[in-house]
Model the fold of this input.
Amino acid sequence: MKTRATSFLLAALAVVSFVLPALAAPSDDMPEETPAASTEIEEVHSAVRLDGEPVDTVEYEIRGGVCYVTVRSFVSMMDPEAMVEEENGVVCVNASTVTQVIPLYPEEQLPAEQTVFQDPAALDAESVSPGMGEDPAASEPADPAQEGAGQQDLLGPDGVQNSDPAQGPEGVEPVQNLDVVPADVITADLDLQAAAGDAYFVANGRYLYVKDGLIDLNGAVAAPVRQLAQVFNLTVDYDGENDLVLLNRQEGAEPYLASGDQTYDGDTMYWLSRIINAESGNQSLEGKIAVGNVVMNRVHNPRFPDNIEDVLFQKNQFTPAISGSIYREPNWESVVAAKLVLDGAQVMPDALFFNAAGLRSYASRTRTYVTTIGSHAFYK
Done:
């Protein structure tokens, strides 16, 4: 009995010795065990590039195919010294571009009208007599070999030719030879306000439309990257293959967008705000923008006059121009709508006609219906 049990045990051990190595060896159908290093989380890179370089400090989120960026992080990317204040869903930004200017001569030593020296080649040779105002003896070179050397001298603003190009007017030393502190001159300013939930934000008096509204992103006001790029005169492209937003500075561009005073034409603003008010002063902001779009679409369409006043007073076109209600002072939102339209806000990009919703008119009978906003129906 003991002999049989021993033989059985030895046979079992032999089977196990063959099975265990087979279980330990990798199968052709089963991949080898993944190394521990492959379980590490893949590093996430920023989807925003500025002049080709990734920007990891920008807070952004893609919503409905639109890249929203927090105002504070975008401004900090462009100007770390900018003042950004944010509270209760409202953000305010103040920034300046400062340039150091070193005057050529100390201001206290120059007459108010005096300027830097000019190259005599830039002046009319006939308007300046060589040696004008100098001692005749001093105007003759001491050494004949030096004759003609004075042609390289510089002229002072009063036309006096100087014997030493490094010297200014008599008794005035150039700044390079003095201990002069450079002056900081502010050459551009930015003033921006934005509030979560609004359909636009304001930068340097310019009204930039945000169709789906500004949003709250992790407690900060965020706007579409395209509108924020406009504030800093950046170009925007999208690399769909790599899901990258590409921002680039424009060579020679101003640091911030031009102010509203420089941009909005006074005559166009006057008439556009008034027709918006007369036609849709009691409508939503979207309805006001739509009316403004129709007017400006006509200005840019060859079938209509090429200026806003003639468009509005074209015979039998706009009732307020006929009744005189167009002259009423516009309400604030009508003025805002006019500025938004002039800064590119589009609700009705193709519409050329509108009338009271449900009214049978020339447009309703002959034109292609687009949509109804508030109490107005719009047609192409």
